[in-house]
Amino acid sequence: MPTLFSKIITREIPASIVYQDDLVTAFKDINPVAPVHILIVPNIEIASTNDVLPEHEKMLGHLFTVAKQVAQEQGVAESGYRLIVNNGSDSGQEVAHLHVHLIGGRNLGPLVQTRE
Ligand code: AMP
Which class is domain 4-104? Predict the structure, then answer.
């Protein structure tokens, strides 16, 4: 069963795709938390960082090069942005397809909530 993000990658589900190549796809988050909120995902299904293998290293390095390019194109490279990868329930991961949130366009405040 393909993940939600696989269906976006194959255009089965509509999304605002801002970048795509053979290895990764970047698209606008449907529920943005800041003026810029892009998800960058591997085209192959990796459920979470717990499932990353040595054979993924080249693709994941490329994903960061794409993150840099998308940040430039979205106009936040100089003002700053945050890359977030959630893993598992305590992080609030909702979609079991590894993804990097690229968030920017405003002051993002503290890294995490400081109280429980
Ligand atoms: P996470 O909580 O790290 O798993 O993040 C999942 C993200 O996917 C959330 O920020 C959602 O808003 C986003 N999302 C869910 N469905 C879609 C969709 N159809 N298109 C774009 N983003 C989505």
Answer: alpha beta
